[in-house]
Amino acid sequence: MAEQTQHILVVDDERAIRNTLTEILEYEDYKVSSANNGQEAIDFVETHIPDLVLLDIKMKGMDGLEVLDQLREKGIDLPVIMISGHGTIELAVEATKKGAYDFLQKPPDLNRLLISVRNALSQGNLAREYRKIEKKLPKIQEIIGESKPISRIKSLIEKVAPTQSRVLITGENGTGKELVAKWIHEKSSRRLGPFIEVNCAAIPSELLESELFGHEEGAFTGASRQRIGKFEQADSGTLFLDEIGDMSLEAQAKVLRALQENSIVRVGGNEKITVDVRVLAATNKDLEEEIGEGDFREDLFHRISVIPIKVPPLRERAEDVPLIAEACLENLKKNDISFSSVQFTDGGLSSLKKRKWTGNVRELHNAVERLGILSTDDKIDEETVEDILSTKEIDAGDLNSLADQTESFQDFKESAERMFLVKQLEKNDWNISQTAEAVGIQRSHIYNKMKKYNIER
Predict the structure, then answer these.
(1) What's the CA angle centered on 163, arms 158 and 168, to 5 degrees?
(2) What CATH topology corresponds to 153-312?
(3) For the structural domain made of 315-389, what CATH number should be given?
(4) Which of 1, 95, 192, 368 has its C-alpha lying 20 to 30 A from 64's C-alpha?
């Protein structure tokens, strides 16, 4: 297929200039159209969408800078080369700030003109390709559900996102708190800025300060170079402090100061660094209860919970289970051809809806993947769900097999403990803090058990 001729619009109120530029560009095999004023140019661009505009600045009526402003306001993002017979550095700077690709003086040097045109068209092609690729990239997962609790959350996101207010997102493990935070960022004026996540539970307390605020070279043993912390990385964007209820009191005090002063100091440094960050926080704990027990600062709680959003557990919105299950299966099909023919029956979805889902949406996602892999045919019906997700039958079989394979009580106990721990880690997506919370032991004990039993993800 022959390459399509690139289309250039020449805008100038002097006929001689229009004719000259048209002749030069047509000789170079470009398709050329022309307009003799600003409004005619805008009307042409809206209907024909050329690849490039050569735009005179000084014209009667609407000048070139006004035309450029209107094109950008209308969301028309094509390369524009400005041309002027009265060029100044100030004018060139202003045109560039408004989004012009280049600025040429009249009469333009032929070689400079053609080089600028080629480069501008090349940049325009790259921008179009980027937009095509961007459309194909995975976007933020939708918040799936039509239940009243989920509808309320979606409505809250719409209201809260455009503001700069801090939001505290609460809910059980696996309910989708992180997804709510991402949508608040996505629908905010900061969406073009970074979204930086910190899992406060996954970082040892002695390293959390450095992770959040960064450190200077030599600040402590092992600090061989300067490190930029998460607050600085999130500048002009959003910082998501996940599991903030697990943050130490010392780290809480420093986060509070950063929120009060809108500035941070790196570990080992003295300079105050101003940061423009919107903080969103999440926790599976009752922070008011933690405050009563002296484990969380009340002043920090009031700073981060201007807008509270509680994400309900799946058992409180059972009507959403079939929608989530089918969406999860569709997502698996996009990434793995082996799932392409698998379908839920109405009975299978009804059976999923009746289950308790103590691990919430995360557990449901894992269950759908397990059903898709282990189902004997392409239909996931009620019987398939009960057979594959019946943990009591599976666990009993495992324990019977384990009893046959071990001779001493100590070996049996340790093997059962290892099996239980692996199942709980898988259930909580290998999140150590969430697993520790779920089974009621300290996080350090989980690490010790994993080391003892050589458990790796």
Answers:
(1) 80
(2) Rossmann fold (3.40.50)
(3) 1.10.8.60
(4) 192
Range(s) of the chain covered by CATH 1.10.8.60: 315-389
Please name which of 98, 53, 97, 48 lies closest in space to residue 72, comparing C-alpha atoms: 98
22-57 confidence digits (pLDDT tens): 999 999 999 999 999 999 999 999 888 899 999 999
Distance between CA 171 and CA 385 in Å, rounded? 27
CA separation for the pair 256, 415 (Å, rounded)? 45
Distance CA 161, CA 55 (A): 38
Q: Partners of 123 in the beta sheet? A: none
Q: What is the 3-state secondary structure (H, E, C) of 19-60?
A: HHHHHHHHHCCCEEEEECCHHHHHHHHHHHCCCEEEEECCCC
Mean pLDDT of the chain: 88
Q: At 82, is the secondary structure helix, strand, or coil?
A: strand
Would strands 167-170 and 307-310 be described as parallel, antiparallel, or unpaired?
Answer: parallel
**N-term to C-term CA, the chain:** 50
Q: Tell me: cis bond preceding 107? Omega within 30 of 0 counts.
A: yes
Distance, CA of 39 to CA of 59 (rounded, Å): 11
Q: Which amino acid is it at 91?
A: L
The hierarchical CATH code for the domain 7-136 is 3.40.50.2300
